[in-house]
Amino acid sequence: MKTRREALKQSALVAGLLASTGMFPQFAYAYNKAAFEAKSLADVVKAVGGNAPTESKDVTITGPDIAENGAVVPLGASCSLPGVKQVLILVEKNPAALVALFNVTDAVEPNFSTRAKMGQSSDVYAVAIMNDGKALYAKKEVKVTLGGCGG
């Protein structure tokens, strides 16, 4: 029977060996700094390689009409078209507009949900970036009654 200390030593040794062989990633590949620092819909779409965004009925945004607590606002985005490369969720009046970026393959249904922090009432966007670079979006206004950023 091993002691806790022996188990921790062996675990650290195995982790070190795996890290030295390149089995653990050294950094996250999915992070797009320019996209997460952009302040507007057009800037975010440009940062992820999309063309000028156009409104589409094939993209759907879900969320409450009135969010009682801006600290945890449930939001969802989906697209019914084939050939989706990325799905984005943006909150227009947040300091960083981009809330979430999901990379999509043909094996994945482009239907995602998350929770966002909203400091004030704002328009929320779901954007689908297609394989050919088209950017399609849907927009919804979400009113916040209690500020999510301490307000």
Automatic annotation (TrEMBL):
Residue stretches making up the Ig-like SoxY domain: 47-149
Gene3D superfamilies, A to Z: SoxY domain
Signal sequence, start to end: 1-30
Pfam family, one: SoxY
Keywords from the named record: Signal
Key word Signal present: yes
Membrane-spanning intervals of the chain: none
Name of the protein in question: Thiosulfate-binding protein SoxY
